[in-house]
Structure formats: C-alpha cells, structure tokens
Specification:
The chain is of the alpha+beta class. It has three domains: 126 residues, conserved putative lor/sdh protein from methanococcus maripaludis s2 fold, CATH 2.40.420.20; 93 residues, Elongation Factor Tu (Ef-tu), domain 3 (Beta Barrel); 120 residues, no CATH class. Helices cover 30% and strands 33% of the residues. It is built from eight helices and 26 strands. Strands 4, 6, 21, 22, 23, 24 and 25 form a seven-stranded antiparallel sheet that branches. The chain has a six-stranded antiparallel beta barrel with strand order 7-16-19-18-17-20. It starts with a helix and ends in a 6-residue tail after the last helix.
Length: 454
C-alpha cells in the first residue's frame, strides 16, 4: 500500500509540473505572436504612405504596346508595370501612341533626316513595256498581177536598203509579151488610119486605149509604155522597181521560179518612222489619251531617250495580261530603232490637283502595308500606316495617314525600324519565364551589341 501511494503522489507532481510548463509556454508564444503581428502591421502601414505610382503597363515581350490597366498578352503573360521615375522623359506619351524613342546621339550617328509633308501637284507617270514595229502605212508588197517567171534578181538579200525606183527583179511572162504586141499594133494602126474615116480610126483608137489600160493595170511603168509606143519593139522581160525607199523585210523571189498572179515576191518597209506598241495595264488605261507625249528607252541605247506621241489607243484588251495596246509614233533618224526591239515607255498623264505628298524614300513598304515615321519630338518617332495614291519619280501622294506640314523621316528610316524591332526581340528574351526580371530596351540593345555605342 505504501508503494502504491508513492506512485500516485509522483504522478500528481508530474502532472502539475506539465500543466505549469504549458501555461508558461503558451503565454510566451502568445506574447511573441502579438509582437510579430504588430511589427507586420507597422511595416505595411509605413510604405503605404510612400507607394510608387504606376504610370502604365507595358508589353512583356517589348512590343510597342501599352495599357493603362493590368492585362495579359495573347500568350497569357502579365503586362509589366512602369513606375514613376523609371520611365524616361516622353516615354509616357510614347506608350500611348506607340512611339519609338532613340537617344539623340544615336539619331545623329544613324544620319536621320526629316522633311515636311507638303501639298503639291505633279504629273503621274504611267510606265509600260512595248516593242518596236514598222509603220503599217509605210509597208509595201511587190506582187505581180500576171503569171510569169523570175528571170533575174537584182536585189537578192533580205535586209538590204533600197531607194525609190531601184530595180528589184526582172520577170518573163507570155501574157505580158502578148499585151505589149497588141498595144504596139494598135498604136501603129491609129497612125495609119489618120487619113481614113473617122469611124475606123475611132475603133482602132479604142483598141489602143484598152491595150494601154491593160498594161497600166499590170503596173508597167510610163517610161516603158512610152518606149513601146515610140519604137514598137516589145520587150521579153519586165523590170519591177521599189515603190519606196526602205528596207527589204521579206524576199520570197528565187531566180527561175514561177509565180502566180497576186503572189508577194518582195516586201519593202520605210523605217524612217516606226511604231512602239506599248502594253498599258488595265487600271491605268483611263489616264492615257491620244496626243500625250511619251518617252521611250531602248536597252540597246541606254544613253538615249526617244520622244514620241500617242496616236491611238486600241479598243481591245488582252485577257491574259490584262493590258491594252497603245500606239506611239516615233521618228527613227539613222534607223537606230529596229522592228521587234524591246522598249520601255513612260507616259506623262494629265496633272493632278494639289495633294499631300511625301518623298518616295519616306515610305517603308512591308509588302502588306506602307509605313512612314513621323517625328514627334527630339528622339521620338511614331510609326504610322498610310494609304498611298498617285506616284511621280520622287514623290508619293498620301491619301490617309499624314497631314500637311508633319515631318517625316526620309533618311535612315529603315535603321530606325530595325532598331525598334531589335529592342522588341531582345526585350522578349528577358520575359521568356514569368519569374524572370525584365530588361529595359536600352540595356537589352547594349547587351546584344556591345559595340552599338561605338
């Protein structure tokens, strides 16, 4: 019994000690929790008074896009806040207008030049390609109107230049010989019947006139007819001569060959004046009119420009190329222009009223849209999409996107565009992971190209 009482007494003492220790530990922990809570509340209350102001949220990939409120990009990445004091001067304006900011030193190194958009009237140039062709009104075919044989060729080379009246070939024809004899006899009969009755002489005169008309219809020259009438001697052969000065463009005659009535043996073209048949695109044909001056360039003579006049706009359209032929009449001194030569044609169509224009070099054409860079301030440029109209050699009409007087970048605009794209690409590497720290554009460019500032 004494042993049991001792055990029970010991258990009570242990229980009492445990209870006292728990109470003391609880009080200590409670006191520590209150202090930590108070300290956390104090720390959170302190910075609240000095909280930084968020200006805007920028694209996490460095693209020229911003938002006044938090949002996510198409990939689900959070836009990054830009606080007051972190943004450079003008960045807030650039964020809201998608501007590109480049340091003044870099602008000078890039050689950036600007020019004010201005209103001007200019002639539109319609360009087309074409080919040289002979003037159809100056082409001549030599085709005998009777049956015969080529007795002798006096011009035997295609491409040979011949003068007007120069002999080309001689022919023999039984019909021609018979017609000459008939005429010679009729003429002699008229002379013999001068003293006879008028009716007989009149009949013989009619026969002579009919024979003469037949010879003339066969293109016998007046000289040959006079010789035949005076001498009464018929010729076995007849000489054909060139009706015009020009180039023999076709020769089918072969010595000794037989030809039929109407068969073309020679073709001669006068190339002192030629045509340029230019193929003008369908959308430009409404601007082209007869009488318009045209400039023609030939690959064979790159240092020469030929000038002519549009004489005819054809009424037909080529459905395969969607072009309309336009005829330009062109003088050909020295016969430099040869048929089938390739030609480039510029047509100065009627002038337009004054419109807003920018230099051709100011436009960056991506293939799907056209961009110009507008200077908004020192080192700040705004890329702006434009809608273009007519074009001259040096200026472009701007239908939408640029106002009269706004300064556009005309030199180094591609370098500025490349600079902004590089910023976007390098800035995107710093945000590939959501937890990665952002890299500012200037530092990213410097890191990607250590020699950029040199």
């Amino acid at each position: 019994m004494k042993l049991g009482a001792r055990i029970a007494a010991g258990a009570l003492v242990v229980a009492a000690l445990a209870a006292g220790g728990g109470y003391w530990a609880g009080k200590r922990n409670a006191s520590g929790h209150d202090e930590a809570t108070l300290q956390a509340a104090t720390e959170s209350a302190g910075p609240a008074k000095n909280e930084r102001k968020i200006l805007y949220y920028r694209n996490p990939m460095g693209l020229p896009d911003s938002s006044p409120t938090p949002k996510k990009d198409p990939m689900g990445m959070d836009y990054i806040p830009v606080y007051a004091g972190e943004a450079n001067e003008g960045d807030e304006a650039a964020a809201t207008t998608n501007q590109i900011r480049i340091s003044t030193d870099k602008v000078q190194k890039l050689g950036v030049r600007t020019e004010a958009a201005s209103r001007r009237s200019f002639e539109r140039i319609v360009r087309a390609v074409g080919r040289i062709e002979p003037d159809e009104r100056r082409q001549y075919a030599i085709a005998p109107k009777f049956e015969g044989y080529v007795e002798r060729l006096l011009v035997n080379v295609t491409g040979q230049w011949v003068g007007k009246g120069q002999p080309l070939f001689e022919v023999y024809s039984p019909e021609l010989v018979s017609a000459q004899r008939e005429y010679a006899i009729a003429v002699q009969g008229v002379e013999l019947l001068n003293k006879s009755g008028s009716e007989t002489r009149s009949g013989m005169q009619q026969l002579a006139d009919a024979s003469l008309t037949r010879l003339k219809n066969w293109d016998i020259s007046d000289e040959q007819i006079r010789d035949l009438a005076s001498s009464g001697n018929t010729r076995r052969t007849l000489t054909f001569r060139s009706p015009v000065s020009g180039i023999v463009t076709e020769k089918k005659a072969v010595q000794g060959m037989r030809f039929m009535p109407g068969e073309t043996l020679y073709q001669v073209a006068d190339l002192s004046t030629v045509w340029v048949i230019a193929d003008v695109f369908e959308q430009d044909i409404g601007l082209v009119k007869s009488g318009t001056r045209a400039k023609v360039m030939i690959n064979a003579y790159p240092d020469k420009k030929f000038e002519g006049t549009i004489t005819y706009v054809y009424p037909t359209l080529n459905t395969q190329t969607r072009t309309v032929p336009v005829r330009v009449e062109l003088a050909n001194p020295g016969l430099l222009l040869k048929p089938s030569m390739f030609a480039k044609v510029e047509l100065a169509v009627s002038g337009m009223a004054a419109v807003v224009t920018v230099p051709v070099s100011a436009v960056i054409d991506s293939g799907t849209r056209q961009i110009v860079l507008i200077q908004q301030g020192e080192g700040r440029f705004e890329p702006r999409e434009v809608k273009l109209g007519a074009r001259s050699d040096t200026y472009l009409e701007v239908i939408e996107g640029v106002k009269d007087g706004e300064r556009v970048v005309v030199a180094a605009n591609f370098l500025i565009d490349a600079e902004s794209n590089l910023r976007a690409a390098v800035g995107g590497f710093g945000h590939a992971d959501h937890g990665a720290a952002p890299t500012t554009g200037a530092k990213a460019v410097a890191g990607a190209n250590p020699h950029a500032g040199h």
